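Our collaborator T.R. sent over the components below with a one-line note: 'Predict the complex.' Nothing else. No constraints on interfaces, no templates requested, no preferences about which chain binds where. So this is a plain run: every listed entity goes in together, and whatever single assembly comes back becomes the starting point for the next discussion.
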Amino acid sequence: MKRLLSVLLVCAMVLSMGLFSAVAEEAPMTIDVYDAAANYAGIQSGWFAKVIKDRFNIELNIIAPQVQGNEVYATRAQDGNLGDLIVVDKKDMSDLLDAGLVRDISDKLPECENIMKFKVQIDAYNKGLTGEDGVYYGIPSEMTDTSPTSITDDVIYSSPMIRWDLYTEVGRPQLKNLDDLLDCLKAIHDIHPTNEDGDPAYPFTLWRDWDGNDNMLGIANVVQLTTWYGEKLKQSAILKPDNTFTKVYDRDAAYYKITKFLNKAYQMGLVDPESGEQPWDDVANKLSTGRADLMWYSWETGFWNSVDRLNAGTGFIFIPVEDMYFYADADRYFGSDRMFGVGSKVEGEKYDRIMEFLDWYASPEGATFQHCGIEGLNYTVGEDGKFVPYKDNALMDNLPVPEEYGEGGYNDGNNQINQWIVSSLCVNEITGERFAQKYWQSYKDMTMTDMKREWQETFDAEDSVDYMKKHNQLLASPSVDFTPRSDDNDIAALRVDVNTQLCSYTWNLIFCETDDEFEAMWDEMTEQLNGFGYEQLYAYDCETYQPEVDAKLAVTE
Amino acid sequence: MSKEKNLGGVQLDKSFGDRVISVLTYVIYAIFAFVCVYPFYYIFINSISANNLSERGKVIFYPMEVHFQNYINVAKIPGLLNAAKISVLRTVIGTVLTVIVAGFLGYMFTRQTLWRRKFWYRFVVVTMYFNAGIIPWYLTMDKLGLTNNFWGYIFPTIVQPFYIILCKTFCESVPKELQDAAEIDGAGTLRIFFSIMLPVIKPILATIAIFAAVNQWNSFQDTLLLMTSTDKLNTLQYVLFQYINQANSLKALISSTTSSSQLAATLARAATATSVRMTVTVVVVLPVMMIYPFFQRFFTKGIMIGAVKG
Amino acid sequence: MQLDPKKRRSYQEFLYILPFILLVGVFSYFPLYGWIYAFHDYQPPKPIGPETFVGLKWFQYIVSNPVRTADVLRVLRNTFAMSGISLLFSWFPMIFAVFLNEIKCKPYQKFVQTVTTLPNFISWVLVFSIAFNVFGSNGAVNSVLMDAGLIDKPISFLKSKDHLWFKMWLWLTWKNAGWAAIMYLAAITGIDEQMIEAARVDGATRMQIIRHIIIPSILPTYFVIVMLNIASFLSNGMEQYYVFQNDFNRKYIEVLDLYVYNYARSSIKNYPLSTAISMLKSIVSVILLAITNTASKLIRGDGFI
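Returned assembly:
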């Protein structure tokens, strides 16, 4: 009865809505996108929706486990239909294949010219998946057109960066090791205890929001800095420069070194007391108001280094420390950790349109929309056909899009798939330059400043990567086709235990008042981690990542 | 002994003790009220102050560099109007059904004549403590055809044990003679409920109405999990949740894609997750506060049971 | 054959409630089949089956080694502490309502009543961001204290574990008291005013009226709420603790719901574990409900369910 009533009412509702749309034109085909990368759930709207509707007459309905919860994965899998277009972590792919949730796309993929520019990578990936040649199930994401060993970036993901004017003011000291770096920062803190508004500034302002992310256990701020000494966390294990693994609590490894470094900074009064209690939002705010004197992620500089500040010489820039040996991932030639696939229930017309869409997605036009935005809004085209940055605030200020793209703000209509096939490092056939703005000549001209020239003279290098290469301080880890296996239930639970303990202890270690306390707590941590079963997790992770290490060795040899 | 007089509804307290209590009561409630009002005031002034000042925690006592951009941005969210319509619909329909059912079941469970009354009451009450998990819940809703269906908002919320308990407790406090008299007149169960009990239990129904309405008004989780193939059933809270979520992920986006040098300058002006959240809070609470006095009458002004009893 | 009228009425009344019993069956009982996930190594997208059955593994997991058991006991200690404090002060909203009712200036009463419900509408995330701006190490309170020279180092209110349980209770009360008081206000409205009038004529003071008429009248509501709270002793919810937790106070703030959430959030593979714990919680709650009901029968002569 109730059911009947509900059916009737829904019919009425659907009918009344249908009336309006039926008059207009052929309704767009809805593509369900199961998207592990999306931060938005629902129908794609705005300018990007218009772009794809005009071309393929489709609309995207995005299902986002990051928003809707992990359970949505289980419930949809149970229905036997994850989605029409699937964007998932590579490590889940073999499970999906076993469950028959992904479609074989071998018939259509070879015809997709734009995607097949990455044939080497796609072949390697699918061969690893099925063991057969010419059988295609998935397309890796964010592949580059460079090589597995090249580093295109002029700055690596993590390195110490200090404001040039402050560094100059304390006499541009030569830094031999972490202790020198602390002394330098101490000197900076003494002359720069607050920002211009009088709010306290510290060299170190830390946050906890990202702890345990990116396949690395432990607190994000520490695990990133381990790369300064050539060591990289693979989940619970540390990969050393000699390609062997060691335990995270090993006192000879970088996790200890960096934790100790931060503790020393704390004891010297260089750590923001709000570290560890502040959410990331507040950190972002501090970065953009000059309340942090040291930055260590390359993208962090975006919060401060405006053109004006670069011209005034107050921008953040890499300052070398002699004993460092930087671990850096090479260009992700084989792509990132996610992949695109097509759902097993997709047939006929829908299948055609999805493949057409994907090929366009990887085309110069499609990739330009993703990486450069809209002409006349985000960039203009110069006389030489190359792009010139235009309204940089289109995203942040949600600027209205040009009329031909419909209504709404730029950010509202931004592509919600949030994952691309073509990396922004690839060369755009339209311009002959890379997609990413920072490689445009026009952008380089805009940002060439006295500060940069001064830096180049001081350190006798083109940029930070150039400096590292010259001084043999760079360990480039080649890109390989590797997918870690997915955890079983026991390991998944154990991982939570170990990560929670590790993070908790590390934070408290950083805030130890004395060295003795620090050492005692480190012992306690070791004991606790082992008590929870760290050894088991460590063994599992070593076994998981050994193939990756072997593959990398094969490339470099 | 002092006799009190009722002068136009205002009580004159003569006893010294009473007066001390009066004064204390006024002061303590004033403090409590301040503690409750201030954060909301704080949220409001921050939502209309320059976002960069508000982010830095500079806006504490009065608004600074007043602007309404945050509100304009919220008003511009696509699909806002339809979402508001759905929210109002689910709130009204859901609340009416929940309240009537709670009142009715609450009353029925006080009736000694009901077949296996205790068993069924317990059958309903223990479900308060059940938590089956999201997966079976979703699959159940799916089997019933309640996914991507407006009634998915309504049916699961109709029987709410807690409200039924509240109603039952209230019904028990109603003098027995009231029902007995009707019973002797030969009135049926339903008639007793509708014509005699319903008017008497209004205060508790108003309370439940407030609770149920606010729950309906505030929920977005069900939209998130159940209404995945349509955006016609989005609720206001869901749309606003997405909006906040977007603002949050904007910050995350910075880490991955941007290389813009003017970012810092624009970041200061851009709506931030916190200011967005504050604006949304004001937008959501205002309608509730506007209809609140309507319900408030029922539970702050006593209805004269004596008068009903006659 | 005729049923005797009494029986007939009794069945008839049951028919009235039957539709709602069915709703409860469908929406609350039927989904309980999902508890079987607690007995499997569930790895979506693979469905569960005989080969994934692991028996009581996930129930034993929490006591599978001494360190983890100690950890779970710590979590339970926090849960008991938070629930215990809440229970201990559960009379607060009632007293709040009683004295609010005593305010004779109606506009003031309505004002207080309205504004004290406001915090209920502020999400915990926002509560924390206000708390951070007011009580953070660089927040308003610390600035004032520092400027006044009362302290020379900021007090980390949010990091410190001192009085943490009580502070959490304060936040919770601030957020909920006004809202919960509505129930008692409704109960007070149900009191026969003639009774109060009569007492007043007899010269009863205000406190006497409160003690002898008002409180006894709303006590049944209070009792029911206390009983229900006892039964949900293990459920504190997680939002509040989630926003206030950091790695310095985690040992004291982590309650069972938050503990489970940490697993569930991390990976869908932990679904069996979280299902096992929530199943245990449901069972404990129902047992507690039975116990309190029996206790209530013994003490008050009447059970509440």
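Summary for T.R.: Chain B touches chain A through 58 residues (CB under 8 Å).
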